[in-house]
Each structure stands twice: as structure tokens, then as C-alpha cells.
From TrEMBL:
GN (gene name): viuB
Domain FAD-binding FR-type: from-to ranges: 4-108
Family of this protein: Belongs to the SIP oxidoreductase family.
CDD domains, alphabetized: siderophore_interacting
InterPro entries, alphabetized: FAD-bd_FR_type, FNR_nucleotide-bd, Riboflavin_synthase-like_b-brl, SIP_FAD-bd, SIP_fam, SIP_rossman_dom
Annotated Pfam families: FAD_binding_9 (PF08021), SIP (PF04954)
UniProt GO MF annotations: oxidoreductase activity
PANTHER family for this protein: FERRIC REDUCTASE, NADPH-DEPENDENT (PTHR30157), NADPH-DEPENDENT FERRIC-CHELATE REDUCTASE (PTHR30157:SF0)
Protein name per the record: Vibriobactin utilization protein ViuB
Length: 251
């Protein structure tokens, strides 16, 4: 299937959600061609680099979608790449090329209970997942944030327990988030698991989940959204190599 042609969107407004989360609201006439119901799908922000050079692409999640607007949330951190630098300086009327949307990655809804886990990079997708779970859903959402001021009010089923875990400094060994998941009381039955976070945290979570439960692929989504000390392009290479190694270990 051919990729959608990039469209040019306009910044409508920016909103500071928490200390480390900035929302940019996009609109413009081109949104008329954008498909409906794309919350949690990803888009590519496109930054041209001049004639003869490949543009820089950065991946972000659609947090909200309305008929004439979409919201994209940016986690604010010290290492400001091209997308975050652009976002923190964005003003109403600024324009940017956007590719996508890519496929949505939602947690499997046919399960005995649910486990969502991730850091700030995954908070927009976790938020959408929580809002779309069945009203009687039971389970946990474990969310790593850098400060108490980054805790948000999220729409979620009453019996889904939100556990906000404060970690001011990303752990290069990727042990913080998995340790919080490991400490959870494991509920009865087969869970559906959705987790996205830093690369090393993802690998540790994968190891933990393999020990805890033999889940079918339909009930497990596990991804890394970034890697400490690497650009998105470098992270993509690390992800591909890790996926090949993991597949080889299973076969």
C-alpha cells in the first residue's frame, strides 16, 4: 500500500500540559483529507534539509482528533532534537509537513485483565488506550514520569489502577520501569499487555513478561520509542538489530 502523501498543517495553538509535556494543536485546510478516528495512530513530522538532502523525520502520536484539529503531545527533555526544538518555539500560524497517519496500535480488548506500561514518550498512546478500554476493564497502567507535576488526569475505567512512578533521571540500564511492573500483583487469567518506553527498558520488560506469562502475539504489544543517547534514526537501527536477534533466539 502506498504511503499517504504528506500534507501541510498549521499550528493553531500550543498548550503547556505539565512541566514536561507540551501540546501542539494542528489544523488547516489539508486536514479535510485526513482520515477520521486516528487517535493513537502515529504521524511523521518532516523537516526539509535543503536540496539534495534527505529530510529529517520524527514520529509522534495523535493524542486527540476533532473534525478540524489534531493534538500532538511532546515530552520535554534536555536533549532537544529538531522536532522538540521546533515544538517549543512554535507559534500560531507556523506550518509544517506531516506524513501519515500510520497504523494504530491499540491494546487487545478481549482479555481477563489489562496491563499498560510506559514512560512520557508513550503517555499520549497510553492515554488513548485507557479511554478506549471497556468500562469494566480491570488491571494496571504503570506510567514513568520525571516529576509529580507531570501527573495528568486521564479518562480511564474505574477498576484500572493508575500507578504514576516518579523517576527524575532516565535509567541507562532500563531497570526502573520494569522493576515497577515486576512488583505488581499478577491477576488471574490471561492479560493483554501494551508497553512502550525507552529501548533498554523495553528489553528488560520483554524478558520479564516472557518469565511471567506466555502471551499470544494478539495479547502483547511491546515497543521502544527512543534510546538514551541516540537519535531516532540511530534508534531505528538498534531496534531492527534487536528484533532480528530476538527472532533468532526464539527460532
Amino acid at each position: 500500500m502506498a504511503k499517504p502523501t504528506p500534507i501541510e498543517l498549521e499550528v493553531i495553538r500550543t498548550t503547556s500540559l505539565t512541566e514536561h509535556m507540551l501540546r501542539v494543536t494542528f489544523g488547516g485546510d489539508a486536514l479535510a483529507s485526513f482520515p477520521e478516528d486516528q487517535e493513537s495512530a502515529y504521524i511523521k513530522l518532516i523537516f526539509p534539509q535543503g536540496e539534495g538532502k534527505r529530510p529529517i523525520l520524527r514520529t509522534y502520536t495523535i493524542r486527540h482528533q476533532r473534525p478540524t484539529e489534531i493534538d500532538v503531545d511532546f515530552a520535554i527533555h534536555d536533549a532537544k532534537g529538531p522536532a522538540l526544538t521546533w515544538a517549543v518555539n512554535a507559534q500560531p500560524g507556523d506550518r509544517i509537513l506531516v506524513g501519515g497517519p500510520g497504523p494504530k496500535k491499540l491494546i487487545q480488548h478481549q482479555a481477563d485483565w489489562f496491563l499498560l506500561a510506559g514512560d512520557m514518550s508513550a503517555l499520549p498512546a497510553i492515554s488513548v488506550n485507557l479511554s478506549k478500554l471497556p468500562a469494566d476493564a480491570v488491571g494496571y497502567a504503570v506510567i514513568e514520569v520525571p516529576s509529580e507535576s507531570d501527573i495528568q488526569s486521564l479518562d480511564h475505567p474505574e477498576k484500572m489502577e493508575l500507578r504514576w512512578e516518579i523517576n527524575p533521571h532516565p535509567d541507562p540500564n532500563g531497570e526502573f520501569l520494569p522493576s515497577k511492573v515486576e512488583a505488581l500483583p499478577w491477576l488471574e487469567g490471561t492479560p493483554a499487555v501494551w508497553a512502550a518506553c525507552e529501548f533498554n527498558s523495553m528489553r528488560n520488560l520483554r524478558r520479564l513478561l516472557k518469565q511471567r506469562a506466555d502471551l499470544p502475539n494478539s495479547h502483547l504489544y511491546l515497543s521502544s520509542y527512543w534510546k538514551i543517547g541516540q537519535t531516532e534514526d540511530e534508534h531505528k537501527v538498534a531496534k531492527r538489530n534487536d528484533s532480528e536477534q530476538d527472532a533468532a533466539a526464539v527460532s
